[in-house]
Amino acid sequence: MDIDRERLSAVHDLATRYRDEAKANLEIKATLNRKKALKEADFVISTVKVGGYDPMEAEREISERYGYYRGIGDRVSDYYGGFAAYHQLKFFLDSARDMEDTCPDA
User: Fold this and answer.
1) Considering the entire predicted model, what is its pTM?
2) Which of 104, 103, 105 lies closest to 38 in space, CA to CA?
3) Number of domains, the chain
4) Is 12 a domain residue?
5) By the 8 A CB rule, do 100 and 94 touch?
6) 10-51: per-residue pLDDT in tens?
7) How far is C-alpha 25 from the chain's CA centre?
8) Domain extent at residue 80
9) Secondary structure (3-state) at 87
């Protein structure tokens, strides 16, 4: 599942090729609709980065401009705690709610 048709096609082709090479017994379908993708799912893998990496890099540049280079002291920052955190966490919460409704055993 992806909201971008071109990325969806590329990942579907790659997943299908991998399944075939591994001789795995998996059914792989492509869709632009999250709820449709979750229907009857046995497991769910999510690799989403909401908004892509450009906003995260902009946040990193702002932090570095003010002296916060990749975290503070011994604390490493992955930059999900700033501006991007809301949208990323909202996506995962919405996805989890869809999973509860659509495929609660996945």
Assistant:
1) 0.68
2) 103
3) 1
4) no
5) no
6) 999 999 999 999 999 988 999 999 999 999 898 898 888 887
7) 24
8) 50-106
9) helix
